[in-house]
Amino acid sequence: MTDTATRGDTDAVVTARRAVIDESGWGATFRVIQPRNFTFWVMVFLFVSGAALTFQGYRAAAEAYTESFAQGFTWYTLFALVFLWLFHRLDRYSSIPAKAKVVAFLFSGLVSTFAMAAINNDAFRSILAKTISLDFMLTWSAGATAPWSEEIVKMLPVVLLIGLAPRVMRCAFDGFIIGAISGLAFQVFESVSYVYGTAAANFGQAEYGTNVLFIRTVLSTGHWTWSALCGAGLVYLIGRPAEAPRRGFGIALILWAMFLHWFWDSITGITGGASWAIGLYLPLTIVCVGSFIWVYRHTVVKERAWAQALLAAEVDRGVITADELEASVGTRKQRKHFVRSQPNHRRTKHVLEATNDLADEIAKAYALDTPDVEHARAEIARLRG
Length: 385
Description:
Layout: H1 2-24, H2 38-64, H3 66-90, H4 98-131, H5 134-154, H6 156-164, H7 172-201, H8 206-218, H9 223-238, H10 247-271, H11 281-316, H12 322-328, H13 332-341, H14 345-364, H15 371-384
Helix pairs in contact: 1-11, 2-3, 2-4, 2-7, 3-7, 3-8, 4-5, 4-6, 4-7, 5-10, 7-8, 7-9, 9-10, 9-11, 12-13, 12-14, 14-15
């Protein structure tokens, strides 16, 4: 009877875990090459077009303004790596595969930036200059064009991955992360062009490009925060298997991001070009980052619930303690509090990281006790000492 009861408990755990894995898409893989998927061929066409335009512009700049181009390219490569690491740290539970993140980054940088937004913006600016006035276009075109034109095209990587990886893009948090990566790529590729473009407008003097590089680095909290809000909002708008549609909330997030973008680009027009206007960017930066953090906390709750459900049985098995489970799936503040409460801080951090690794292995094994899962459990025991 004991064996039967134990086997029944085990079957119940496997069933419960598989329900979580199916709902969350945890452990799902991503293939770039999908010849039977129409979305793949759309992506290929747009990648070729965008890459051609980007390469054409970058090659000409590298030849004519070598110093400015090298400065911008090198600096913003490092800039991108730092923020990609940050977004990777935020995506700590049912993580989106790295290949999917790379596709989103490159699509936004190569396609959304130069093959879509730049063309849209130039065309609309021309319309404003012809239909209203040149002065109006110079003062207000950024605010009148970029918020809708750029935010729409920066949401396309989310749409693309829903088509290519529906088992990966399951909830609003996935849209949030991909949106942030899309905005980062847009900002990086655009900023490189601004660096050498400013030098070009000043007879090729590299110091002008350096000034722009500094300013756009200090004021670097725009695109990735707005796009993260739009990415989450889009998923709420259309719904996903693990995210019931909340259309009003989704539209509100997208419009709020566009409003922040509009205000950011319209400060000169609103203040009449006053010298003190630059001071408005500080409170606006706080609002942008605060909005990003609020949406992160709102969307990550579902991911944490999945992690807790996946790891709960490990407490019963004695692999981890209940406090370690709560810390591993809790907020950053909860993790720090738990680590500080333990005698060996470094060891505790490693145990919490290994606990997350165990959740990944359980998901990859589809809730079976494979050698990789057993190894992950043994690693926790080893780290605990």
